[in-house]
Amino acid sequence: MDNSVAKAAMSFNDMEVSAIGEVANITLGNAVTALSMLLHSDIDISTPFVEIKNKGDVVRTNPEKAVITRVDYVKGLDGYYLLFLKEEDVRIMTDLMMGSDGHGMFYEQEVSELHLSAVSESMNQMMGSAATAMGMMINKLVDISTPNTVMTDPGDYVNDSFPQDDRFVQISFKVQMGELISTHMTQLYPFRLAKAIADLFIVKKQSGDGEGPF
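^ thats the sequence. predicted structure below, dont judge the formating
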């Protein structure tokens, strides 16, 4: 493969950028609806912001410990992605899931296995809904495994999780959860997976196929 072909293979054209943004907007909307029901709180998200980043940029711009959820695709797509959450947001979410007001004893505690388990459960509901929505958009049955959540250094986790990947699509969005949480969350897809999703979506959209995978 010559350099020009290799470069094209590792970049998005305008249509693909628009496609992955549209997919993210719809899937995250479904995910947030599920999370809102789980937390009994109104949640709003901004339009997702799509960036292409190399591994070095991802590592440098995420220097602090974070709660990271890994979501594996087990049907319809090949690969997995990461969702980055802030420690304080996780404590609030856990406290809400435990029936408190978001600033109770589970908010006051350090992030523990209980918090990570609660986040995994919320992400399971959230990303399960997102996967269903994505399946409708790319005309495939899409399913995920139970999410795995850890609190660790993002740079090390990215390096360990994606040893063969040097470029990523980063999707950032602002989350407003009532008056309790006003924050930014980030999804990280390996470039090859994000490009596959964008291309499948474009093919279905251009074909005018109104039929879903079900």
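The chain has one domain: 13-206.
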